[in-house]
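User: structure tokens for this one?
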Amino acid sequence: MESRFACVLDVKASLGECPTWSADEQVLYWVDINAPSLNRFDPKGGANTAWAMPQAIGSFALRSRGGFVAALRDGIWFVDAQGAPERKIAPAPYDPAHHRFNDGRADPHGRFWVGSMNEKRDTNSARLYRLSPDLGLSPMLDDMMISNGLGFSPDGRTLYHADTPARTVRAYDFDGAQGTLSSGRVFARFDGETDRPDGAAVDSEGCYWCAFYSGGKLVRLSPQGRLLAEYPIPAMCPTMCAFGGDDLRTLYVTTARQRRDADELARLPQSGGIFAMRVEVAGLPEPKFAG
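Assistant:
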């Protein structure tokens, strides 16, 4: 099947991740976890600015006060608007020798949710954490290997979360006022060898879009978890998607090229780039961290 995605930034990132649209600036921020770098991509001019980070950066969110809150390997930091780390606000709640932060995003009430991953992949020792605006860090979910796929329903009452190696996306009742989770249940489970749910985004109809790492595609699931559509992408390892553009109807996808063989990269030379396609249903505005 021919892909509707076009490469808009052929950057050849090792592990592109966490695309986040800034409605204020009309630009896409994203990270290369391995570079490591935080990036600002202007789709109108095509320019990408990369700010080097001192260590692996798993994810980030925009701050309502300007700049970013960023999950680095050794803890969570405030980063200024020019990409310079300012201060660590929470130490890593794991051993950085074999764990790091991974997927994360802000919720509609201004908290930052971020998960960890076990790089050794030998036990389910990763967790999902909640950073409150008062900078308190609390574990919220455990018993996972690679925390991924965070998303919130349009009404703010459901949190979605994936454990990539388990090929499972779960949904939780979300109390926005308290920032708590309950009634966890399986939202979608996949059986294919390459059906590995990675990063995700939710559109304004409540549908869940998920990148399949090693699967070369994105899927769109209904609010009930039913597969609605699949969209191939010219890279085997899409990592996460985000809605952008002035109408939030441009779907951006980051990809990776780490540990891919030479034959695959010759066949898919834009692996590691950022891809985009126009969609019929708009996404949701990305919340900001209120701390």
